[in-house]
Specification:
The chain has one domain. The chain has about 150 residues and is α+β, with helices and mostly antiparallel strands.
């Protein structure tokens, strides 16, 4: 019976950790979205396309995207999957940079200073709004430098 009780307590602790119960979080925690870092990287990838190389170790809070969920030619938004660790919790999103030929996107995530980090990846949908319809432009991940496959194309 003791083993069952320990297993139940361990499972409850995992559920509380994953649920992100906010007790003990510092007040005034501010997140700085890495917009300038993203814009620099996006412009570089656009200029080097299609020979852009992955940003290994050069972008701190930018994250590659796992794929595109929804993006139609006539739409002015793209919904993508962003993989992040439990350290990131609620402080994540996506950024976009548009050119005439392509739409460059990236995820971002900032680890919470008091987060309990685990080894699993969490995937959440993120959405960006476009200034113009997607049309026939390609969608490129600014972190990996790779074109993302679009549903239906």
């Amino acid at each position: 019976m003791r083993g069952c009780a320990r297993a139940a307590l361990a499972a409850a602790a995992v559920v509380l950790l994953v649920a992100g119960c906010g007790e003990g979080e510092p007040q005034g925690w501010e997140v700085e979205v890495p917009e300038a870092e993203f814009q620099d990287r996006a412009e570089r990838v656009a200029g080097e396309w299609p020979g852009a190389v992955p940003a290994v170790g050069e972008v701190s809070d930018l994250l590659p995207l796992e794929g595109v969920r929804q993006a139609g030619a006539g739409e002015r938004s793209i919904t993508m999957d962003l993989g992040h660790s439990a350290c990131v919790m609620d402080d994540f999103g996506a950024l976009v940079h548009e050119t005439e030929e392509m739409v460059l996107v990236s995820g971002w995530g900032v680890a919470h200073p008091n987060a309990s980090c685990t080894a699993q990846m969490i995937v959440d949908p993120v959405r960006v709004r476009l200034d113009a319809e997607l049309g026939d432009r390609r969608v490129v991940d600014a972190v990996s430098g790779e074109e993302l496959a679009l549903p239906g194309r």
